[in-house]
Amino acid sequence: KEDVDLDGRKLTFSINNPIKLAELIIVGKSGKTLKHVKQTYRTTKKNQRLELSWPEPGGDVKYMDLKVHDATGFWKGIRLTPISIAIPHDDVEFASGKWTIRDSEEPKLEATMKQIRAELAEHGTLLSLKLYIAGFTDTVGSPASNMTLSRNRARAIANWFRKEGLKVPIFYQGFGESALAVQTPDETDEPRNRRALYILASQVPSKSRTLPKQNWAKL
Q: What is the pLDDT of residues 37-93, one digit of tens each?
């Protein structure tokens, strides 16, 4: 899994015989091929490590097939399937305008941690998984202050997971009131809009109505 960098769009593989060609076929969610990358090699050596990169695929990736061909025409392949898992959880409640996690809220995060560890044990074997934490607010307060507040709360949750021993890379981002779960007028106290999302994924989550930006900060 450490040989595959989906965000950097490159992978490394080892060969046990000289090869002539490596192919990477990238298939989108629709089932259609997004990119078909071919890399030819003139001279390679047994046990050599090679790198293959690919351009922006232009869509969400369903899977990628790597096929490596030797000089006699035989090939060996592996299928890489990106993973994205939304972690169900109870949202942490913060004091108004604050981002300190209160002791009374920690059992919620402890339950979420168990869920994250269970998903890592089941799915974190082939591709490296990362945790993405997105924070949201309601419309009470200015958009700018809500953006800052949601970012600080997402970072506080990220710090809690790291402090409790979560080893995977953690990224966080605040969206403020820019992606409301329930549309409301300005200055509306709506608990359903004060929420967070926890996503385990092997690549940066795609932009969507819920995640309209990709300004993820690494903890």
A: 999 998 899 899 999 999 999 888 889 999 999 988 899 999 999 989 999 999 999
Note the maximum CA span of the chain: 70
Contact 123, 85 (CB under 8 A): yes
Q: Measuring CA to CA, which residue among 65, 68, 71, 76 is closest to residue 42?
A: 71
Strand, helix or coil for residue 155: helix
Does residue 94 sit in helix, strand or coil?
Answer: coil
User: What values do phi and psi take at 34, rounded to 5?
Assistant: -90, -45
pTM value is 0.83
d(CA 162, CA 219) in angstroms, rounded, equals 9
Pairwise CA distance, residues 162 & 115, whole Å: 15
Give CA–CA dist 99/151, Å, rounded.
9
